Amino acid sequence: MGVKQFNPRSPGTRFRISDDYADITKNFPEKKLLAKKTQTSGRDWRGFVSMRHRGGGNKKHYRLIDFRRNKDDVEATVIGIEYDPNRNCRIALLEYQDKERRYILAPLGLKDGDRVMSGVEVDIKPGNALPLRSIPIGTTVHNVELEPGRGGQIARSAGAGLVLLGKENGYAIVKLPSGEQRMVHLNCRATVGQVGNLDAQNVIMGKAGKKRHLGRRPEVRGVVMNPCDHPLGGGEGKSGIGRKHPVDPWGNPSLGKKTRKPRRRSERFILTRRK
Asked: Which residues pair with 174 in a beta bridge?
């Protein structure tokens, strides 16, 4: 796990910083754990663009990840650390004692040959999954459920990890990387450890074509558009936005305006807002 720099032999390599993929131990995915992934190019079911700046990109399959970790009290062995084109962290291929294989998110420090388990009374070590009520206070966890049995929903990207701060009234208090503190039911499961591939944040694309390979189309500032295309467009030469606050293409406030609904159901579980 690390990054590598390139000699400036071309404009695309002058500032490029790439992943060295040193932690990859298995080069080909498990065929039985692949699913077809249809390219939508940012379109919804009606065919209209619902997410801008999406399209193209290389074809890829989806890896079926076990976010629930519900195969209790059966020991599994890590037989490979793989690259996943759908996420910035690594995935680990597990083989259970009954020869069943599953993918999980690879935590920091997990390597080939390690043994992991899931259950209520398993050891507290990276890769093991158990309910929050069985995890000691101060432990770093990832892949945390928000509803028991639904599967992990938060702390799943590279380098993510929640800190268990306390337990009270049937809920655990966890601190998110953003600084937000919220309550999660003690029956929700979490995986011990921090998600691996910490250097994902240090990668620099180096050229526009790399983003096109990922399916990301170019983005253009609103102030350089025409007035018919954006509320901030128009003007002679370099001009300001002409408004008190920036807005998005549909006139809604942006860049600092809080858009979270004040009466959202999960509001009562948040103790401290993110910074």
From this structure: 164, 182
